[in-house]
């Protein structure tokens, strides 16, 4: 799987360039060039045409955001941002994702070389995953395509049509990973407030970034969205983003309001927060209409949760391969046989609405 992946490593620290390059080399990835700033990174990408770039956020001459934007314009290449755990870096990292970066990896604090070594398998896996993403103009067009790939079970409307009405007290649980932030935002932007959904979002994202992610969704959608806290309650028109490094469980559900519980239980599917934890507890606890959605990401997290939601009588949707940055989680969900609809990203909001509308007689 790793064989043949070629990477450029960009970081203003010679030490970090060496550490990252050694980890990738040990993992079977060919580091074809190192760059000390963003300008060097752009030059290296044009010269060596790598499969992926690891890009530091803060660099002299040209920072990671500017370099990512230049790369996407001049020689589109999958970029994995390397960011520190700070609020400022969280803002910059999301800006880089807006400019075309595929995902990000958080640099550890403390004894960096020891911590990076501990995380080496994860870093190698992420670089390999990012390298497989098509970021060319054709790939972007394909991933933003609309219309033709809808399944027979769905229609085409982001609001209840004439003669239709929304069911009462619906809940949506969303799971995503690599390439997911922009996909989650797309879905949430297209959901009408009138649908009155309770929304639970589990994005594989470290502590320090989920709060900013929730703020972005809140600003860009009609829903009131916040980072989950232990004991947080939400009703219709509100949403919670699972906090980094905490599982989000549905503790109870009464009269259209649900309460979340955050735990530090062991990782599930090697991740925390895990989509399965939220979906399974939602399926066990919520007795009103429930919709499970799996978006782009690597791994199998969410597949068992989809089974549980389907078994509880809920509706299930997965993003299609053509519009997924990484068709891992959606593929595993589809393979369960418990997914009702497989849809391109621009049709998913419609698909959700279709599951929570009823035709009036």
From TrEMBL:
Encoding gene per record: cheB
Source species: Haloarcula salina
Catalytic activity: [protein]-L-glutamate 5-O-methyl ester + H2O = L-glutamyl-[protein] + methanol + H(+); L-glutaminyl-[protein] + H2O = L-glutamyl-[protein] + NH4(+)
Domain notes: Contains a C-terminal catalytic domain, and an N-terminal region which modulates catalytic activity.
Chain intervals with Low complexity compositional bias: 151-164
Listed GO biological process terms: chemotaxis; methylation
First-tier enzyme category under EC: hydrolase
Domain CheB-type methylesterase: 165-359
Pfam families per the UniProt record, alphabetical: CheB_methylest, Response_reg
Protein name in UniProt: Protein-glutamate methylesterase/protein-glutamine glutaminase
Nucleotidyltransferase recorded as keyword: no
Residue positions where 4-aspartylphosphate is found in the record: 56
NCBIfam families assigned to the protein according to its UniProt record, in alphabetical order: PRK00742.1
Response regulatory domain: residues covered: 6-122
Subcellular location: Cytoplasm
Family classification: Belongs to the CheB family.
EC number of this enzyme: 3.1.1.61, 3.5.1.44
Active site (catalytic residues): 177, 204, 301
Function: Involved in chemotaxis. Part of a chemotaxis signal transduction system that modulates chemotaxis in response to various stimuli. Catalyzes the demethylation of specific methylglutamate residues introduced into the chemoreceptors (methyl-accepting chemotaxis proteins or MCP) by CheR. Also mediates the irreversible deamidation of specific glutamine residues to glutamic acid.
